[in-house]
Amino acid sequence: MVEDDEQQGINDQIIIKFSHVVAENTPKGLAAQRFARLVEEYTEHRVKVEVYPNQSLYSDGEEIKALQRNEVQLIAPATSKITELSHKWQLLDLPFIFPNAAALKEALTGEVGVELLKALEEQQIKGLSFWSNNFKQITSNSPIRHPSDLSGKSFRIMSSKVLEEQFEHFGATTSITGFNDTFKNLEKNRQDSQENTITNINSKKLYQVQKYMTISDHGYLGYAVMVNKPFWDDLPGDIQTDIQKAMDETSNWLWLKSEEMNKQQMQEIKAKSNIKIYTLSESEKREWMEEMTVVYEQFEPSIGKDLMDRMQKIRQ
Ligand code: LMR
């Protein structure tokens, strides 16, 4: 009888497949594992989250469609990759949109974040939270200090019109390629530059195939954790509550953890590689910001003035 009850429990267990593209020792990789543990604990094993890192199930070009088909129930793509679903999300790709980590947190945990997650519902997707991976830096095979240095470079970018314009406006070319093809493409000189966080540059060893890194903090890299909406709507209310609690705890933990990991892995890169690192001075940064406002003007109509104005208030 006890055995039957146990068997019954296992048969009833709800499985959530969680697919992502990065390594396990990254902010997203660690958050996914932590979230899985918390969900099992809070639901007393009624829900099991199976985490598939390093695109072992789906590449970043495929995972949104796999979610909409309910082949996986949970994904956490970089927000840039969501701009195809809703143009409002282009807001988060605007260069220098977040002056610091506090503004980032205020926007994403406040009304701006709520509006962005809500915009996903038309696409059969429920957005549960934002996970942060801090700010992006630029790597290249020749030094980049001023926006004019972007001219002639070929950048690997994520799929986003804003990122395309951010580089093409200054005379660079861009190509959209999958995250896990980046190392190979740089190694084979198909592209000569890219932008990413320190933890992604470190975990994928991009410092081995790039000669220079500019610490610019010019763009935000974070994730939206998204669940298939019909799957979510079918879950019992108490399970939804437990999952959301596990999610909120993980997101809170990650705000600090991602900052700490990016700092610590910067030291690791310095210790083990020969990449030449240049940090933009405050006045150089101001030059970048001023020159790049041209991108804001171009994308305001598709992002929407209301959202831009709300973001502007946070920036002041
Ligand atoms: C990238 O494609 O550069 C990143 O979005 C990968 C990730 O998910 O952090």
From TrEMBL:
Q: Which domain of life is it from?
A: Bacteria
Which keywords does this chain's UniProt record carry? Signal, Transport
Gene Ontology terms: cellular component: outer membrane-bounded periplasmic space
Question: Which Pfam families does the protein's record reference?
Answer: DctP
Its BP terms in the Gene Ontology are: transmembrane transport
Q: Which residues form a coiled coil?
A: none
Q: Cite the NCBIfam families for this sequence.
A: dctP (TIGR00787), TRAP_S1 (NF037995)
Q: What family does the Swiss-Prot or TrEMBL record give for this protein?
A: Belongs to the bacterial solute-binding protein 7 family.
Please state what the protein is called.
DctP family TRAP transporter solute-binding subunit
Q: Which organism is it from?
A: Peribacillus cavernae
